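Example record used in the benchmark description.
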Amino acid sequence: MGQRVRGALLVVALALVPLGLGCGDDDAIEAAGGPGAAPDAEEALTYVLAGPPDELDPLLAASRPDQILARQIHEPLVERLRGPFGEGRGTRGLVRSWGSSNDRVIWRFELRRRVRFQDGAPFDARAVLANVERWRTLGPGQEVLPELVAADAPRPDRVRFILSHGVADFPQRLATPRLGIVSPAALRPRSGRFAALARPERSGTGPFELRERGPDRTVLARNVEWWGTPLGLGPVLDQVELRVARDARRRVAILRAGAAELADALPASAASRVRSDPLLTYLSGDGSEVLAMERSVRGVRSASAIPPLSEVWLTTVGAG
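Model output (structure tokens):
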């Protein structure tokens, strides 16, 4: 494999309710020029999936391949991002802090400022309310957040969610890839009510944007205007290629041949074949599947979660 470098609602009138804010965020990674800034040399990563990612709308992304693709373009409100190269303790995503009423029925979220969608629309409370209205009125959103009743926006950078009953883990519910935030400009109607995502390609705030799409190959390119880059959050990868190989043995063969860096959704029985190759390793999932990878890949922390590829970087193949 040599020494090549692998490119890795309804607005509700409410009396003011006291809300705690015990989840503050101090962007811990230094800005501009720190780890994760734009690379000097092009780096690319190939990720072999078990099936084609057919759905770009995060709310409708039911399969794992769909969610892997949608997750790179559309970010959920709640996440914890770490910069590449293993440096920094990370920072929160589109939501910087949150708190709730004592009964956990009302939740307040402080939004990150100066973020824009890839289509140029601003990310603000109005954009979040359009997404909330979509979640509240469409079946897939109701499945994920059945307790969601309404939301309002006291300020452009603050959103309050009103629930039918107290939910202690509501912020964690908002972290699912299916609740990736989309641009209101891409919705029809823009209010979000029963809305379809009419223009999904540049509708996210995420670190990658769609460059090319085919039946067995999808290419993502680095979003050079991603809000996380000045904070040292990456992405280091200039390009991510998602390839499809439906047969698990074929996915292992592609990985072992050096034609990919990651192979998804492999049966546990494939672990022995991966283990026998000194240039490969793997992570076990919650169930019986594993995620296999070259040892050059860094930043993937879980086999079962949908990885944010902005955190991934690549070392020289063969490095320890």
